Amino acid sequence: MSSKEREVLVQIDHLKKFFPLRKGGKNAAVRAVDDVSINIYKGETLGLVGESGSGKTTLAKMILGLLPPTESTVMIDGKDIWNKKEQKELRKQIGAVFQDPASSLNPRATIYRSLERPLEVHGYSKEEAKKLIYETADRINLGHELLDRFPHELSGGQQQRVSIARAIMLQPQLLVLDEPTSALDVSVQAQTLNELLKLQETYGMTYLFITHNLSVVRYMSDRICVMYGGQVMEIGNTAEIYADFKHPYTFGLITSAPPIHPSFRNRKKNLLDGEMPSLVGDGKGCAFASRCKYCQEICRTQRPEMKQVGEEHFAACHFAGEIEF
Amino acid sequence: MKETLIDVKDLCIQFQTPGGTVKAVDNVSFDIKKGEVFALVGESGCGKSTTAMGIMQLIKEPGRIAGGSINFEGKDLLQLTRDEMTQVRGKEIGIIFQNPLDSLNPVYTIGYQMTEGLLVDKMDKKEAYKLAADMLRDVKISDVEERMKTFPHEISGGMRQRVMIGMMLCRNPKLLIADEPTTALDVTIQAGIIELMNELRKKYDSSILIITHDFGIVADIADRVGVMYAGNLIEVGEVFDIFDNPRHPYTRLLMKALPTITKEEGRLETIRGSVPNLAEERPGCGFADRCPYARDFCHHQKPELKQISEGHMCACHFAEGGLKDEQ
Questions:
Q1: Does residue A22 form part of some domain?
Q2: Count of domains in chain A?
């Protein structure tokens, strides 16, 4: 499927989020998301990867309509999520699952109550809500006996299943999954990931899958977007990102991931020196310049444009396609 | 054959809870050779961290070490007095934890904390400072003089973990225990820490016991691996044996649950059911309820950890036979 045939569900165009600072002059701000443009197509899973502080969650919050952007906006199905009139209706189209299931469930409310509340908000009657809750529980193999329990009586995997149930109850078009399995054990993670794939197949949902786990994102995603310092470094098909990355940062990130077998111990690595730089600045130049070993003068002064380096494969590097890794 | 550094035998650690006695570590035996990296791997609650804390004798009430022996350089750690054990901790066996910020004191400088242990060893102040500074260089920290004067909150997470490793190696322990040392860090930082540990083990010839839930870390650094499940050590072997020829059904399923494929290639294996309640008496194999190969007697008879080939041990009744035909 080429991008032309697919329908765009989420459209983000030059989106920015700056957090102003009190100290450091008039326009000093943390550039958490700095000029990000991406599309998410209907029915696909877009994986969003990057280190902590790369702006993944800030971007997700803007898509969810929880954090107002500094510049530009997020269009979902052609409608502006920040348009007050459409917001409530649009929010029904978006579900969210977060990393720590225990903290996204009210400890003093039963699971049933936690599931009922969003339906109440959207004007469902008690009977309608009850029917929908039981239906949803059946859909994701959540035993009915669990509904009367409190969050602390459930295991981490079960709690996460409740979060997923709540997120999909209103049959949203888009599900934003922010590190949904990071707090789970390997075997429970496998169950949860398979469950999510099944739901997607059945209901044709679109996923934005945010994680720092590179093997999980490879398993789940059709396309992968690599972020660093609030900017998109590279975006493309999963297979291409892993086998034929064009951005030095992607090279560093992917080869830093631990190997899947001890025979890959001596793989070629690009270990990144130093730490992610401060996001306070003028936003000139490439965000990765300070840690990039291929960095040239131009990288510090001029922000690289997104360059097409393959079919549906783009990299924001002045030398994309020219560097031999 | 390398010399054995530490030999843990039949270690039992129990916790008294209102729900009964929890056997968090149940008859666990393994040894670590000199200069070797041994990984204990398993999911949460399997007893891997408790085993490490048992070696350090840092088990707190209501927990207690209920039996076994820990032979370290000719002495049984479990027979030592409190004062003697204090001499072992930090000096002969060092430990680093998941969150370095919990291990570092927020009101003292890095330099003070780095030299503290050395001063306990009655080292001269200047000498201690020099050694600490050299060690920080060894763990790849730049501007060492500056860093010695900073406080833990002023440096990044990756740097804090490097400081912890440096602090532990200062006293040149024979064994370094690393309990999930990179779990809280980004992959790029993690890769650096693993590389560092690999370099330092060669330089100082320390043995390392690494506790992790991440098979990737195991693949990257371990020489030998012990897999734990529900308080039991269920399989021990060379790292290549564990990855290429896992014999225990749990190890096999866990390997297949790792996302090493894409969704086009297939689905991940899942393990049905959940971890048993460790407070209940279980006469049989701890994994029997979830095991696709389990027979009747698996529920009644506990399998011993026995050798199935050179250096490869497994606690399963069917470890020697072909598991594939049994399903």
A1: yes
A2: 1
Q: Which residues contact B83 (CB under 8 A, 6 or more apart)?
A: none
Q: Which domain holds residue A192?
A: 8-93+172-315
> Above 70 in pLDDT, residue B322?
no
Res. B327: pLDDT tops 60: no
B243 interfacial to chain A (CB closer than 8 Å): yes
ipTM above 0.90, yes or no: no
Counting Cβ atoms within 10 Å, is residue B4 exposed (0-12), middle (13-18) or buried (19+)? Answer: middle
Residue B239 to residue A262, Cβ atoms within 8 A: yes
The partner residue sitting opposite A155, judged by closest CB among B187, B214, B274, is B274
Amino acid at A133: I
- Subunit contact B219:A264, Cβ cutoff 8 A: yes
Predicted local distance difference test score (pLDDT) of residue B325: 44
Interface of A with B (CB under 8 A): 51-52, 155, 157, 185-187, 189-191, 193-194, 197, 212-216, 218-220, 238-239, 252-253, 255-265, 269, 271-272, 275
| Contact flag A197-B263 (C-beta cutoff 8 Å) | yes
Please, which residues 28-47 of chain B have a Cβ atom closer than 8 Å to chain A?
43-44
State how far the Cα of B232 lies from the Cα of B288, in Å rounded to an integer: 13
DSSP run (H or E) holding A156: helix A156-168
B326 pLDDT band, cuts 50/70/90, is: very low
Residues of A whose CB is below 8 A from B217: 258
User: What is the predicted pLDDT for the residue at A281?
Assistant: 78
User: Is A56 domain-assigned?
Assistant: yes
Instruction: Give, in words, the CATH class of B4-81+226-326.
Output: alpha beta
pLDDT in tens, B36-57: 999 999 998 899 999 999 999 9
β-strand B207-212 against A206-210: which pairing, if any?
unpaired
Provide the CATH number for the domain around residue A43: 3.40.50.300
Which token pair is B276? 């048993």
